């Protein structure tokens, strides 16, 4: 059993790696790597297998040059993004659940047991107890099971179609962020996309009407949306949309509202704000048709339409110019949609097919980020009223452009049809171009085959992810594995009944080693390749020598600058250096040069010209690779910061709910039972001594705390300000908390004893505004962001005990 634990990976659908599989895999690796520069006359099979040695030269852990350092930074960054993306997905699920439950609390319609259920979603992990931890035998069984699920995506694909909407989010968490959670690793990404292909194919088979394809809120559509929230998709949105959206937000007074009824209401409001009576024949309320026919409304809308179409056109240009930046996986899904549509509906027009592709690319991917950029952390502050309206209209126009038919559903959007007609052919070309990417099947075979030699394939997975997946598989086993000898059925039978879900505090993440029940490990990859592909020992030795020389030159970079590459001198320098690893490599390649010359593979008379030429080509490639790695790292740094910011935002939401729930419990229990080891906003925790129990102290006034106008505006707490620029330096705010859940916000002007404005604010009211999607709190001189204000109150007044908040 020990050899199985080393981490083999079963090739997809192949009981044993056959010669043809390996041949195609090796050939695929060569086909994808520097085809033009590598054709210099030797047998092509040598260059096929040289893919292995090229990868070794690129990623050798013993080399300490700029490339190696840049690669380590990039790998670490990608790992962090993958891990943090999963954390955000889990937090988003909690926030969505609590959004609905807190609304009941606000309305005082939640019983005590329901309050306890809500509280359970706010508990932190307890690292102490391990009574729920699987024993060694269970770990082996789960290692077998999840190895099979990962390497044979058809099982997961079938399961995703069988579960209901209530179950899909938990399963998607496991699939997208755990089973295939390494978002930048080609094998896991390609396996995940293979699963998508199976799911989409089944969706096309079972859908009866073309118009409903991929548009309903189904587990499949939820899968597609969740996929776009992975690291590469977030990176694309940040790179492509952030500047355009932030540029629009700078013009906070630019009003491009074109809905005649709302424009009419703006006119009425303006009259009332100025204290003027409405003109004769201008009633306060009218129908949409009357508003659309009003000459003043028409005169206001006309220039707005021109500007709106111009702004949207700039967004469209930016998106269309980003074709090469669109993540491969998203383009490949577009390709599958096009291919499946043509097969299932051969009579479908190009416009109809493009509408389906656009339904995924725009409706599921781009437009949500345009409409709510703050949720995707594309902006630093909450969009104001006018920019928010403009972004919504831009998204509607882009969706109308990608839709079939080409015309708007809302009457007031009909005047934007010229934009649609002008750009329809362009957008269809772009959507078709999205689909022009190569397939990955051969490279996946290579990845799968190489994975057979790995010894460290693991999953970072929580107990409840394991147990929930186990339970779902058991529930649908007769569909997933109808035969007695199906591997999945055998593993589930051995694993027995699925354990119950553990309490949140005991839902610990564990490292699960993956290995196969049926696969034989590959102990020596080189020997396997030789036997499977008729490659000689000389071919292998030649490629290994080249890889070692590349590593040596990376460690001795001055040799790369010389016009003629003296391999004999490089080997000698390495063999006589003070570094033990260099000495070992130098001596080895000295021997290899002699053996290759004796076999008439290379010739010292021409200074090993062919080998030297290939080494130079490899080094040129590595130089370009370093630039690409550093450029990618720079881009991903921004993405990682965005994901962390979003994580902090989600945590602040949960902290608000924690504080509110605790305040409710304090008030309902007279401040006794519910106060142990937990706090609400404005409740301090005291410790009377070691080992003593924590309890809420008698409420006392906290604060006031002082904040400048510039500070709050920079942090996005002030969403809109009417304070002149010249006076902002003289304005400051104070916030105090006289009792749990109650705050007093005062606006002061320097030099004056009394505040200009004072507001009594309840935590309940803030949360209720958030529930009602009211995004700003009006203080006459400024408007505060509801979400950022909650975050500020949490940061300022929530006192953390030693064991954490609400532990």
TrEMBL record:
It comes from the Eukaryota. Residues 187-403 form the Ras-GAP domain. GO terms for molecular function: GTPase activator activity. Keywords: Coiled coil. The keyword Plastid does not apply. One of its GO terms (biological process) is negative regulation of Ras protein signal transduction. GO terms for cellular component: cell cortex. This is Ras-GAP domain-containing protein. PANTHER family: GTPASE-ACTIVATING PROTEIN (PTHR14149:SF17), RAS GTPASE-ACTIVATING PROTEIN WITH IQ MOTIF (PTHR14149). Residues 60-87 form a coiled coil.
């Amino acid at each position: 059993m020990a050899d199985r634990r080393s981490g083999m990976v079963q090739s997809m659908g192949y009981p044993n790696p056959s010669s043809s599989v390996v041949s195609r895999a090796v050939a695929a690796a060569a086909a994808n790597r520097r085809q033009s520069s590598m054709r210099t006359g030797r047998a092509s099979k040598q260059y096929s297998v040289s893919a292995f040695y090229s990868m070794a030269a690129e990623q050798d852990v013993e080399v300490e040059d700029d490339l190696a350092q840049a690669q380590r930074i990039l790998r670490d960054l990608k790992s962090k993004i993958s891990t943090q993306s999963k954390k955000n997905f889990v937090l988003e699920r909690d926030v969505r659940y609590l959004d609905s439950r807190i609304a009941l609390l606000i309305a005082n319609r939640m019983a005590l047991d329901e309050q306890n259920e809500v509280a359970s979603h706010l508990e932190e992990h307890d690292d102490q107890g391990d009574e729920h931890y699987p024993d060694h035998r269970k770990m082996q069984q789960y290692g077998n099971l999840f190895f099979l699920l990962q390497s044979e995506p058809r099982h997961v694909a079938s399961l995703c179609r069988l579960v209901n909407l209530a179950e899909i989010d938990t399963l998607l968490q496991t699939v997208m962020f755990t089973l295939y959670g390494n978002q930048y690793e080609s094998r896991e990404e390609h396996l995940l996309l293979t699963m998508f292909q199976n799911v989409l194919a089944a969706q096309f088979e079972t859908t009866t009407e073309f118009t409903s394809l991929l548009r309903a809120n189904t587990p499949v559509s939820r899968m597609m949306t969740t996929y776009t929230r992975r690291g590469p998709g977030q990176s694309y949105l940040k790179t492509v949309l952030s500047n355009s959206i932030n540029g629009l937000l700078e013009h906070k007074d630019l009003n491009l509202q074109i809905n005649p009824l709302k424009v009419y209401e703006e006119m009425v409001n303006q009259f009332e704000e100025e204290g003027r009576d409405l003109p004769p024949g201008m009633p306060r309320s009218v129908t949409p048709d009357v508003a659309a026919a009003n000459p003043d409304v028409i005169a206001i809308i006309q220039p707005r339409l021109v500007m709106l179409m111009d702004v949207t056109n700039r967004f469209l240009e930016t998106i269309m110019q980003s074709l090469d930046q669109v993540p491969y996986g998203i383009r490949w899904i577009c390709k599958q949609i096009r291919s499946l549509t043509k097969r299932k509906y051969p009579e479908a027009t190009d416009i109809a097919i493009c509408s389906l592709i656009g339904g995924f690319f725009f409706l599921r991917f781009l437009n949500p980020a345009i409409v709510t950029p703050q949720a995707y952390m594309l902006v630093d502050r909450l969009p104001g009223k006018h920019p928010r309206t403009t972004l919504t209209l831009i998204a509607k126009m882009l969706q109308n452009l990608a839709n079939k038919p080409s015309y708007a559903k809302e009457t007031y959007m009909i005047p934007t049809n010229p934009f649609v007609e002008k750009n329809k052919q362009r957008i269809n070309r772009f959507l078709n171009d999205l689909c022009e990417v190569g397939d990955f099947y051969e490279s996946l075979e290579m990845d799968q085959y190489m994975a057979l030699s790995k010894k460290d394939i693991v999953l970072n997975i929580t107990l409840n992810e394991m147990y929930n997946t186990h339970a779902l598989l058991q529930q649908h086993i007769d569909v997933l594995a109808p035969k007695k000898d199906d591997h999945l059925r055998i593993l589930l039978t051995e694993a027995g009944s699925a354990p119950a879900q553990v309490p949140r505090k005991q839902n610990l993440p564990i490292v699960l080693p993956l290995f196969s029940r049926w696969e034989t490990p590959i102990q020596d990859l080189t020997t396997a390749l030789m036997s499977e592909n008729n490659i000689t020992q000389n071919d292998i030795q030649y490629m290994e020598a080249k890889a070692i020389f590349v590593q040596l030159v990376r460690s001795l970079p001055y040799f790369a600058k010389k016009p003629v590459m003296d391999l004999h001198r490089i080997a000698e320098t390495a063999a006589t250096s003070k570094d033990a690893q260099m000495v070992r490599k130098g001596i080895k390649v000295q021997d290899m040069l002699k053996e290759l010359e004796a076999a008439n593979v290379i010739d010292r008379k021409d200074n090993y010209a062919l080998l030297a030429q290939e080494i130079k080509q490899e080094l040129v490639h590595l130089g370009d690779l370093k630039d690409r790695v550093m450029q990618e790292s720079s881009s991903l740094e921004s993405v990682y910061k965005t994901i962390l910011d979003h994580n902090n935002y989600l945590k602040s939401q949960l902290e608000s709910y924690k504080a509110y729930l605790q305040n409710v419990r304090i008030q309902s229990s007279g401040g006794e039972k519910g106060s142990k080891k937990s706090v609400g906003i404005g409740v301090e925790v005291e410790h009377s001594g070691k080992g003593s129990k924590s309890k809420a102290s008698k409420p006392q006034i906290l604060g006031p705390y002082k904040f400048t106008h510039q500070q709050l505006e920079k942090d996005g707490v002030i969403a809109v300000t009417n304070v002149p620029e010249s006076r902002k330096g003289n304005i400051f705010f104070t916030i105090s908390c006289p009792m749990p859940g109650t705050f007093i916000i005062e606006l002061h002007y320097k030099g004056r004893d009394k505040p200009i404005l004072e507001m009594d604010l309840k935590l309940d009211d803030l949360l209720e505004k958030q529930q009602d999607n009211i995004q700003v709190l009006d203080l006459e001189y400024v408007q505060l962001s509801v979400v950022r204000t909650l975050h500020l109150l949490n940061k300022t007044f929530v006192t953390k005990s030693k064991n954490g908040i609400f532990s």
